[in-house]
Write a structure and sequence with these properties.
Layout: H1 8-11, H2 14-21, E1 34-39, E2 45-53, E3 56-64, H3 68-81, H4 86-89, H5 94-101, H6 109-131
Antiparallel strand pairs: 1-2, 2-3
């Protein structure tokens, strides 16, 4: 039996390809409503930036120095989060990211954990800023 070769463009899902190569959310936001940064064991770093209006996530952007799979996961977290309330956003899990992407390689599932972890840090930062809004003006 011949071993079939993986065809990147044909064997990945449309969602994976769109999230892996999409760059419209990849930007650094100055003075965000929440920011979180996390580096994984693999060395990839994801930083998430939140824009929140009236308790709802209006926009999520991110920056990463990671691989294509990390970019796909960070972009997916942004896709899943936009439009949700901040409370509902805590329900986003690495499994949700993996399910959305459909074809994230097994050995790259840690990328979903990294992206969600950075997102949770951004949500926690937003909560802190809500309790102490004066701190936002002192950020860099």
């Amino acid at each position: 039996m011949a071993h079939e070769q993986f065809d990147f463009w044909q064997d990945h899902s449309h969602n994976f390809l769109a999230m892996a190569f999409g760059r419209q959310r990849r930007e650094i936001i100055h003075n965000p409503d929440g920011r979180g940064k996390k580096t994984g064991d693999c060395g990839d770093t994801v930083e998430m930036f939140l824009t929140i209006r009236n308790g709802r996530i209006e926009a999520v952007s991110y920056d990463t120095d990671g691989c294509l799979n990390t970019n796909a996961c960070a972009n997916t977290v942004a896709e899943l989060a936009e439009g949700r309330t901040t409370e509902a956003a805590w329900e986003i899990s690495p499994e949700d990211v993996i399910d959305f992407l459909q074809t994230l390689p097994e050995e790259s599932r840690h990328c979903a954990e990294l992206a969600v972890g950075a997102f949770y840090l951004a949500l926690a930062d937003h909560q802190q800023l809500c309790r102490q809004p004066w701190k936002k003006q002192y950020r860099r």
